């Protein structure tokens, strides 16, 4: 079974601040949350969940990922939107949650920072570049 699909950062923001009680899970590392920033849902009265897909430091897979997301409030049938730096880890996380019977699980394309521009800076897409609320971790 595949995950529910890909959505833009703006579509994800609308969903996680909307009436369906959807959950946003940022699957980046603690270092990324601290030094790059995090999505800020406080204006909607909601909070994102922060669960590493890969452990930092070292990058080992988080064997407890599904259980940690459950502990953050995800139940079967509750929509979940997964966010990483660029949309790769979050896709794998969406597939894992779907395989565990959770979701529907959506991958946020371009992630928090988006892809590189020709000068190798992350200015082309993602949550931050879409002008969505964020704060320094």
TrEMBL record:
- Record's superkingdom? Bacteria
| Sequence ranges assigned to domain Rhodanese in this UniProt record | 18-118
- Listed Gene3D superfamilies: Rhodanese-like domain
What name does this protein carry? Rhodanese-like domain-containing protein
A family per Pfam: Rhodanese
